[in-house]
Amino acid sequence: LLSDLSIAGVKLLKCVEGQFNKAFILTMSRGDELVARLPNPNAGSAFYTIASEVATRHFLRDVMGIPIPRVYAWSAEPSNPVGAEYIIEEKARGEPLGKLWDGLSTARRLEIVDQVVDMEKKLATISFPKHGCIYYESDLKSRSLSYERLDIPIGSSSVSSLCAKSALPDFVIGPSTNPRFWEGERATMKLDRGPWNTAAEYAIAIGKNEQKWAESYAQPRMNFYRSLEHHEVPHDYISLLKRYVTLAPYLVSTSMSIEQANRISHPDLHLDNIFVDPTTSEITGIIDWQHVSASPTIMQRLYPQMLELSAAEQSDKYKDERILLDHYLDAVKEADPLRWKALYAELSEHQSEMELIEEVSGIMHQLQDEGLIPLGGMVRRQDYEHAKGVNDILKQKFVDLAENDEQRELHAEENGQRLFAAWLQLLSKQSPALPLRLANQHRRGKAQAIAVSGFSTGAYNICCTVTFDDGFRALVRFPILGRSRFRTEKTRNEISVMRYLSQQTNIPVPIVLGAGRWGCGPYIVMTFIEGTLLSQRVESSLGLDPTISGPGIENAFHAMAQIMLELSKPTFPCIGALVQESGVWKVVNRPLTLNMNELVRVGNIPPDKFAGGSFGNVLVSDPNFTVAGIIDWEYTYVAPDEFTYAAPWWLLFESPEAWEPDLNEFLSRYTPRLQLFLKVLRSCEDQQIQLQKMDDSQRLSDKMAQSFWFCLAARKSFMFDDIYWTLLDQKYFGRGSLEDRLLLLSQEELDGLEEIVPLKMQQARENVLEEHLTYDQFVDL
């Protein structure tokens, strides 16, 4: 190796090998030390492994500023004088942290943990467009492989402009180098190795890849944990894989949030992969970046391996380890609140729920021991009514034992989840035959529906795409039982809105082909609109930092401004739901709003918080954010003018609810975005006025600059108290106590309080958790 590279006067020392590489230390004649590494066969594809590691380290070192040893020479092809793929790099400066760790004080260890958090914070500043590994564009282009360029913001410029300015090569996101994609026969198979757009795509890909391998290479084998006589057969394994592929989209969140953001994270940050200055404890180098990828946050380690709790729980060592881990979690919460909120907050909530479940389990066992609840819940037919009566009494007493609303919410939510599971099982049993039949029924003609995609789940609907033999595609959508209340009314209203918009405006919406009911509720069949969600395009081009601005965000705001102006033009005499009678559009029904759905569906359970807001329902067709279509018009209704004039809450790509209780912090970040949006909106208004598509009196920008919180409180009842007491009360009534507020009332109003207060207190005492409807009653809705 050394002679072929024309390196002379070198002392060669073989290192302790890792799992995936052979390594040598080269001591030069002047005393400088280098490390030469050659990948083992189990490392996966040598080409992709070497090419990606070199590009990744180059990117992290020279673009992100992470302390990583420099690569001096490398080859991802065996056709070189060496005859093998290799990397020659500088030896990491300092000492391995594992060599020093036991001798460090707790204070020194905490300082190192802070440095690790700072590095992770730096890595988290970039959200990559896809899930995959980093390469040089030239390496993948030479092999005609698909990839995604890294033209994403970093600091005041983009990666591509920074690379050009610094004479760096162009970086791209390409296939994964994970060894399991290249193991054994898989190395020569055509598999889906990425890059992937979403975590759901990745989850499906690993299932389909394994299914391909099993169909070609799997053999019967004995599994003595399962049977001493019978083999496991490939057919059973393949059947399980097919079920997994069907379920995979439901196992991963589809909302655009920090959980789905693709970030770089070191997957194996143990003590020996961190080098420090033994005098100052400053981190001087981090090694072992092989197989590192940009991946969704939910697929990354919760904390570095160096902070694993390894000691017995009652030992002093465990207490020391716990101090470090808790310090790390607190530091992450402060340094990267979005990541903490996405991962650790949910785990903390899960722990609280587990404690509640354990308490409930103890109560249930006690009731069974006393004979109040039959074991297993089974009763004789003649005892059913009596048992049901006892159960209802105990159930209400149990609910009354709840210490707070959160515990009551848990009980209500479980009922809805059981209904959803039963409904989904029925839908799955009738698919794909049901979507094919409905699509054929409502698209009359010679063309026949021939293929159905897997189901995708949104907040309130499940959808699938049906393809016809002439290439036409339709979307079949089913409102979810247990999440959507008044499903028939909701479906009818949405159909009316889409038909009105297609007839009366220039807004591109799906064409309704037909609608009706199947065995378990309503459905809609509509045209499928091709495009990318604006929320995805914004995130991939701008990342998740709400302070970012630039051409990308202005293009997004321009698209939304055009839509809002178009929606503001029609006027109606009253508030409610649209309906067409004898060819005339009227407002004759109540407005079915999203807020109403949530209040009725779960009583006192606050709604889900979705990142992306209204951006999640807009499809765009090119990098300039040209709107291809707008989907999901459910819960749209004719609303008060004031709602149209109110500034949109989604300008930060997340709901103000996500900022509770610190709404002032939300406002400080929201205001600059609002100014930018109003600037874009005024430009759109000027253009439409010039084209005589609207007049000056129809401008929205002037009114939006003055109105926000009142309308938000009216539309989001879950936030009403926080908005009123935090932002409105003192603004309009000044500082003071509740007693001061009473002085604002007239004597007549004060006298009325004497009657209403006892009445409200009595209602609060009598308030019980509203029972959910039965399954049959739900289906009827």
What does this protein structure show overall?
α6 (199-217) runs antiparallel to α7 (234-251) and α15 crosses α18. Strands 18, 19, 20, 21, 22 and 23 form a six-stranded antiparallel sheet that branches. The longest helix has 33 residues, at 337-369. The chain is 43% helix and 15% strand. A hairpin with a 2-residue loop joins β9 (153-154) and β10. The chain contains 24 helices and 28 strands. It has a domain at 426-763. The protein is α+β, with helices and mostly antiparallel strands and 781 residues long. The N and C termini lie far apart (75 Å).
Give a brief rundown of this model.
Belongs to the AIM9 family. It is found in: Mitochondrion. The protein is of the alpha+beta class.
